[in-house]
Amino acid sequence: MSIILGIESSCDETAAAVCINGSIVSNVIATQAIHQQYGGVVPELASRAHMQQIMPVVVKALQEAGVGKNDLSAVAFTQSPGLIGALLVGTCFAKSLALSLNIPLIAVHHMQAHVLANLIERPNLAFPFLCLTVSGGHTQIVLAHSATKMELLGETFDDAAGEAFDKTAKILGLPYPGGPLIDQYAQQGQPLIAVAEPQVDGLNFSFSGLKTSVLYHVQKMQREQPDYITENLPNLCASIQARIVGILLKKLERAVELTGISRVCLAGGVSANSGLRHGFMQLAKLRGWDAHIPSFTYCTDNAAMIALTGWHKLQAGELASLSISPEARAAW
Ligand code: KG4
Ligand code: ZN
Question: Do the strands 105-109 and 23-31 form a parallel or antiparallel pair, or are they unpaired?
């Protein structure tokens, strides 16, 4: 029997989870509300909050799993990418625990874990599959050859999809994070307003031109109509959402064409977007894809995906040395 403790601290969620023989038995998250008042994640505050929360979160995850620390087979933690100070807290905690218990340490790449989150509720999902990972920090199309071998087919050159939602929301005067609010208002509006579609070759993305086009449009309209945003909020949100979702799905469709792989998944916080979920499932039906979207809990940052990735890496013998350091950015 192998019992893995997973620890996630790459951004503003302190999380711990336990995986027993490939099944998640506990999944605890402490979200840091402090960043809301600043309109974005403040790295220093994130690190401090991780230090306060990591112990109670780990204790709760072990309790909920009904295991003690001496039952653990290995400790897995997010080693990269992320905010360096935030990653340091999880890394130090995981290293100390592994050292004191004399058990293996497993370093997990956060983006690989997002992809493998699809296996939490669908453990028999066959490889290879494609995954569109869309979060506040990343936009990637990944080809998963196996649990431990992944290939990056495309990524964003500038803003991530979640950033595109949050930054356009900010232009509309909505609080951070604006993505879920754009989703809400979009449901009452129509995509009648032109939003730029940046042109990028291959399977890569760009969203910064989209944001600028919304800014210029709003500024121009407000000169004649000062209440333009409030009077047109649902249509503005519907137009922004339709454009972002359209760009994402167009590239995903292209990835399926290029690879011939029609098993397709979503990952990351933006997969909570109702327009993306709906558009993705409709496209899957139309094209005959085998499609899967994880539950919301496993789309956003969580430690269940870290614990499960740790379990796969343990099977593959991919262990880390106790001298390992976290990295803000790292290739797969
Ligand atoms: O994966 P995640 O929880 O954190 C990381 O960035 O790693 O993703 C957060 C992002 C934020 O940009 C947030 O605005 C976006 O996901 N998001 C949404 C929705 N829910 C979360 N964007 C659009 N529509 C939503 N319903
Ligand atoms: Zn993430």
Answer: unpaired
